[in-house]
Amino acid sequence: MLSDAGAAPSSAAGASGGEESVLDNAPWHALTGPHARFAIGGDLARLYPDDVAPFVAVRTWDDPHVWDALLELVGTGAEVGVSGYDGELPAGWEFTGSGEGVQLVQTPALTPRPDDEAIELGADDVADMLAIVSRNQPGPFRPRTHELGRYVGIRRQGRLVAMAGERLHPAGWTEISAVAVDADHRRQGLGSRLVLDVAFHIQERGDRALMHAAATNTGAIAAYERLGFVLRRRNRFASVRTPS
Fold it and tell me: Considering the entire predicted model, what is its pTM?
């Protein structure tokens, strides 16, 4: 996914204070802020290493040189996600798909709390983390994604059956992501418990929590709203292929 600062946010009634403008372009503000150590690229376009995350970010679509910077960054004939751009593509670029996502932010109704059963996950757990992601498809997760923040899980009889963690980190905010629960352990509240545990530690260090979801994932959106998140904005995104 690639994000920009141009799309107008929707209302976030009920959300507490904080610098929300960075959320209009969360990947860029992560890669130029707390996640700068991961950044590949320059002043107009940046991305994470491929084994960390698939996200590409641009500073703004208003600079006519951004397309050249993006092409130099990802190479020819590459497919990349773009968000917040509604204009014509430059010559040689082509659309390959589109969709809609939502961004949610915490409100005062969120009551984060640590979970006694949650265990922290790290490099030794990568195989199990990739396996639960493969089984449940919560979104992109790579071998080094766990380096972006704190990941926790619940094991039953040694098997990792639920997971959640931190991903994008624009200043003052941390995204809760990779929420996955195996089918035979759903309807037990494990996903909600882990979200609240992750949110607790986010809040402990002074950040606020945000989440992203596909607009079609109405069940997950409703669950996050029940926990105390509110829709902040909708965002159209597209896949494009760079010139060959």
Answer: 0.90
